[in-house]
Structure formats: structure tokens, C-alpha cells
Design goal:
Elements (H helix, E strand, L loop, with lengths): L26 E6 L4 E6 L12 E5 L1 E3 L3 E6 L4 E9 L4 E6 L7 E3 L5 E8 L2 E6 L4 H7 L16 H4 L7 E4 L11 H9 L3 E7 L3 H4 L15 E5 L1 H13 L3 E4 L1 H8 L11 E5 L14 E5 L6 H10 L1 H13 L10 E4 L1
Parallel strand pairs: 1-17, 3-12, 3-14, 4-11, 14-16
Antiparallel strand pairs: 1-2, 5-6, 5-8, 6-7, 7-10, 8-9, 9-10, 12-13, 13-15, 16-17
Helix pairs in contact: 7-8
């Protein structure tokens, strides 16, 4: 299986650089895997597509404002992207032209010193507690294909309304379409809601540069399935309801938490699960997701869930139907 098998042409003008004016009014493409049919809705119509025995599983990770801008001692500007906390003062990070011992001064905050973490990784050690500075002065880590600087509005729009646990450097974007009112309507229909955590890191968005898919190295990310979430998933399945993963992060979290008996079990730790066509799904029955980049691990995952040809047909229909793509774009519901 080649990476080129998951390629398609995405015109730049189809990338959503701004969120929809109202989250719930984005487009929703509905894919029926059994019938091979595609229909078109609005996201606020989702409650009508759910059944009382269904379980909606959300990722409650919270995006941290991980983009920090400072200056080197020479006065030259420098920007780092925090990736993962190592301890109270140290983070792994991404930075252009890193150098051992380079010091970056952050106005109104602590300084940071770069050092190699081995294996090509770089770390920044802050001179003091940086949490309040990050929260107050950091920029939201918009993906590189959104070619603009983050602004104050992104602190709200690039965050799900149920975000709770800080740690992600990218939003679980399928969840961006929900509003508190929409979640209440879903619950009023008898649909249960459970929450898991996966802190979205570079593994989710790391480009696939290998010719063969199986040679791609998936960077691990932290995930947690609380006991109440595991019980909710297993209970839904025992009742004959669908387990609906809101986002590829939820799907990977659940699938990486299944034991030999086929039950989802409580767990806490890293997962590097890389889902490609041929994978047998054990936990998730349906998936809500956005439209993803060509040749990406996310496109491979949804192709595994719905079939590569069906997904590429759906993407072609979306491009012909004026859908908006990627993080701030429209959604699909695969059932």
C-alpha cells in the first residue's frame, strides 16, 4: 500500500482559513457505508441522525496556546512551538535553526534555553515557571496550512466547547462543530455522552514522507480512558447501540484500549496506534470527522473505516459541492 494511494488534489481556496460564523451551521456530509450512499445535511441536523441507545464519545483535551515568540540575544526574532511538557520547566519543542544553549528572551516572561534531547528532538528549559506566561501571551497553534497569524478569536474558535484538560497542540477538530445547545439536544434525545482524552500532538499531523505506508513512524500521543467511559462504551454495545467517535483522536483512543475479549478497558498512557486500511475496528461503530489533507495519516484512517474508494468518492463530491476543508472546515458523519 503506497502513500500515493491516498492522494487527491486540494485547491488552496477550499481550505478554511476562518471558522464558520456559527459552529453548528457548517455542512455535514453523511456517508452510509452499508448502502454506499452520500447525503448532504447541516451539522445542527445531527441529533436527528442519532438513536436513543447511541453513545457519543468526545475528546475533552484542551489546546494550549503553544506558540511563543521571543528574541535571541542578537535581537533576532525567534518562535518556538511547545509540543509536550517534560517537567515543570521543560518542554519538547519545535524551533527553526536550533542551536545547543541558545537563549530566547520572552517579553514579560521567563527566558528559555534550548538543548538537544537526542534523536533529533529539541527541548526548551524555562528560567522560571512559564505557565502563566504561556496562558496569557502564547498564540494558538493553528496548523501551518492556515496561512495567517492566530488572533484573539482563535482562542475561542480553535477550542471545543467541552475542552477541559490542557495538553493538546492542535484541536480535535471534529468537535469544533458542537455547541452547548446542540449537546443538550442530543442528550434530550436519550443519547449518552462519554469523554476520553487524547492530547493531540505532532503524531496526528506529522506528514507521511515514506513511499510505503507501513514504513511511516507514528509519533506516540498521551491518551486516557476513564473507567466511566470504558463502562459507557461496553454498555452501549451490550444494548445494541452505536459507539460514535467524535473525531479520529477518539477513534484511535478507543481502539487502542480494547482487550483480547473485545472490551474497552480503562487505561492511561501513550498510544502510537497507526490505523490504515485492513485494520479491524473493535470499538467504534460510527465516526464524525472533518475533511483531511491528501496523503495524511488521518485520510488513511477514515479510508480504513469507510473504504478508500468510498472516501475518495466522497471527497470528490465535497470538492464539487463547495465544502470547506481541514481544521476549520466542514464535517462528515460516517455510519
Amino acid at each position: 500500500m503506497k502513500t500515493s494511494d491516498f492522494d487527491y488534489h486540494l485547491p488552496e481556496e477550499r481550505i478554511a482559513y476562518r471558522p464558520a460564523a456559527e459552529r453548528q451551521k457548517s455542512k455535514l456530509m453523511v456517508l452510509d457505508r452499508e448502502k454506499g450512499e452520500i447525503t448532504h445535511r447541516k451539522f445542527f441536523e445531527l441529533p436527528g441522525l442519532l438513536e436513543p441507545e447511541d453513545l457519543l464519545v468526545l475528546n475533552d483535551t484542551r489546546v494550549i496556546p503553544a506558540r511563543l515568540s521571543g528574541r535571541k540575544k542578537s535581537g533576532e526574532r525567534a518562535e518556538i512551538l511547545l509540543v509536550e511538557r517534560r517537567d515543570s520547566r521543560t518542554w519538547t519543542c519545535l524551533v527553526r535553526n536550533p542551536k545547543e544553549g541558545l537563549v530566547i528572551e520572552f517579553e514579560g516572561g521567563p527566558s528559555g534555553r534550548l538543548f538537544s534531547g537526542g534523536g533529533g528532538a529539541w527541548l526548551v528549559e524555562f528560567s522560571g515557571d512559564a505557565d502563566s506566561y504561556i496562558d496569557g501571551s502564547g498564540g494558538m497553534p493553528l496548523p501551518p496550512y492556515i496561512k495567517r497569524e492566530p488572533d484573539a478569536g482563535d482562542r475561542v474558535s480553535y477550542q471545543t466547547v467541552y475542552a477541559e484538560k490542557p495538553g493538546a497542540i492542535a484541536a480535535p477538530t471534529a468537535g469544533l462543530h458542537f455547541t452547548p445547545a446542540l449537546l443538550k439536544e442530543i442528550e434530550h434525545r436519550g443519547v449518552r455522552i462519554a469523554r476520553v482524552t487524547l492530547h493531540v500532538g505532532i503524531g496526528t499531523f506529522k506528514p507521511v514522507k515514506t513511499e510505503l505506508v507501513r514504513e511511516h513512524d507514528m509519533h506516540p500521543e498521551f491518551r486516557e480512558v476513564p473507567r466511566e467511559a470504558a463502562d459507557a462504551v461496553n454498555g452501549a454495545k451490550s444494548r445494541g447501540g452505536r459507539v460514535i467517535a467524535v473525531g479520529t483522536t477518539v477513534l484511535r483512543t478507543l481502539e487502542s484500549s480494547v482487550n483480547e475479549a473485545g472490551d474497552v478497558v480503562p487505561c492511561r498512557g501513550e498510544t502510537g496506534l497507526f490505523i490504515v486500511p485492513g485494520y479491524e475496528f473493535k470499538a467504534a461503530d460510527a465516526l464524525i470527522t472533518n475533511f483531511h489533507l491528501p496523503r495524511s495519516t488521518l485520510l488513511m484512517l477514515v479510508s480504513a473505516f469507510a473504504g478508500r474508494e468510498f472516501i475518495l468518492r466522497a471527497y470528490s463530491e465535497a470538492l464539487n459541492g463547495d465544502y470547506r476543508f481541514l481544521s476549520y472546515g466542514d464535517a462528515m458523519f460516517i455510519n
